[in-house]
Amino acid sequence: MSEISIHGSEYAIGKVFGGDFTFKVPLYQRPYSWSPEQADELLDDFVTFIKNQADINVSEMSPYFLGSTVLIKKDNALNSEIVDGQQRLATLTILLSALRQVNKEMDAEDDAHITKFIYEAGNKYEGTFDHYRLTLRGKDSQFFQEYIQEPGGILKIDNLDYNTLSDAQINICDNARFFLSRLREMKKVELERLGSFIITKCYLVVVTTPDRDSAYRIFSVLNDRGLDLTTTDILKAEIIGQIQENQQDKYAEKWDNIEELLGRDIFQDLFAHIRMIHRKMKSQAILKEIRDYILPETNPQSFIDDILEPYSNSIYVIKNAKYQHTNIRPNNDRSIFELNALFTWLNKIDNSDWYPPTILYFSRYWNKVDKLLPFFIDIERLAASLMIRRANINQRVERYSKLLTAIEQGDDLYANNSPLQLNYSERRATLRNLNSDDFYTLRNVPRYVLLRLDSAISEGIASYEYPVITVEHVLPQNPPANSMWNEWFPSRQDHKKNVNRIGNLVLLSRKKNSRANNYEFKNKKKVYFANKGGVTPFVLTTRVLENDVWTPDVIEMRQREMIEFAKSIWRL
């Protein structure tokens, strides 16, 4: 069997989008799928990294590692087929295009310095054509060239009809608009520093092979989470290995018992939370940070006894909502019931960034219910607000980092300026999103908020252990012609204002049914909104069934009622 040539090297983005590569996304790859939230995280990472080195020139900054990309590329060939990494490369191209446009708006001239990293212009005397650094798959290729890669094309996005676009094209447009909005808020010197940083200090590890089969094997090795050694496997060997031989079996058994209690995935997550508790910043290389800053090998027994064991107990109780006090039967103590209910709500939040401060606080005050309850009331409030406001990961990490510091320093967590509390602008922003006409479109938010409101209205006695819980519209998104809906909502403006508001949404313990969703209101109540016997497990849905009509006035009244409940729950 002949040997396959495999190469792996670090390249600055200026080289990646330079003359050494031309990238093409093959048809078998999935379409472009990054959302503005992921684009926001990428840009925010860059901006935060630059701010942390504000006192030095870009040329003297430490490099920023963006990950890896796997290519099929013949030796000495220019063209490269992307096996892994197209989302990152496409998003970087969109960012560079937005940066080029905003620079032009400031200088009133085309920024050719950036254009050359997006495409290489052809020369009629040399018989060459425009040469794009990145070509997307299929029909998205021409769209990407026209609206992203060509100078000025990004401004034409505002004239597009989204109804005619593919999901990939919508993602491209949304991210382009997002980048333009963020970059236009920056000063010229900040833009130049950002551009220079991306081109010269951001690095990708580019792995190339001339053979598709070997490329996929490389991809599998880089991404497989099956039988490969995990961070915890490596740390176990290092930490247990530093313990005296006559104690190794005892601590190896402790380690294994903790991993078995939590399960392999949560055990792995626990180490990420431990790293966050100590470092209080977003992770770049978790294994190295644990070795360098937590130093488990220095005193391995203490690490297991004083950190790993109490923190694992904390995450187990919080994750499973199984708090019990040794001196009180849980069923007879309202505070313990409320505390476990708060754990359950926190676990429905669409991120896990709130875990480190809760693990730290619970491990310190696990036997003091009077301290735990107010803390978890307020951290659920904070986590819910961050989710409702769609705060990105960097904003969440920054906030929880401040909270970790406050807990460690013994600060008053209930003072107005505490990182546990919401300030006036945060409360207003939370209410603004709850009251938005586009509330339904806030990713992951409607289900959580509606369940939380339903629980509050039912005074916490409702159960939500259903295999399926969906959020449905009362007024349909696409009402049929000649229906009563069009009499109640005669204009397109009336429909648009009301259809996605919180007042028009209900919870159902069944899968979506697009046909039933368009029924007339009377039939919809009978057939779709009620279970057998005409009842529903959700109080919010039951209240809809009490109405004979569903008009803008009814939605407005319900909207105000639900907002008032939200204000009460989260003290907004």
Describe the fold and architecture.
This protein has 572 residues and is an alpha/beta fold. Helices cover 54% and strands 8% of the residues. It has a 6-stranded mixed beta sheet. A two-stranded antiparallel ribbon has the order 5-6. The N and C termini lie far apart (69 Å). 32% of the residues are buried.
Task: Compose a concise summary of this entry.
This protein is α/β, with parallel strands linked by helices and 572 residues long.
Helix content: 40-55%
The gyration radius over C-alpha positions equals: 27 Å
Count of structural domains: 4
Q: Main β-sheet: number of strands, strand sense, barrel status? A: 6 strands, mixed
Average pLDDT figure: 86
> What is the global morphology?
globular
Number of strands: 10
Strand neighbour order, sheet with most strands: 1-8-3-4-2-7
Which structural class should the secondary elements be placed in?
alpha/beta
End-to-end gap? 69 Å
Point out poorly predicted stretches.
224-228
The tally of helices reads 25
Strand content: 5-15%
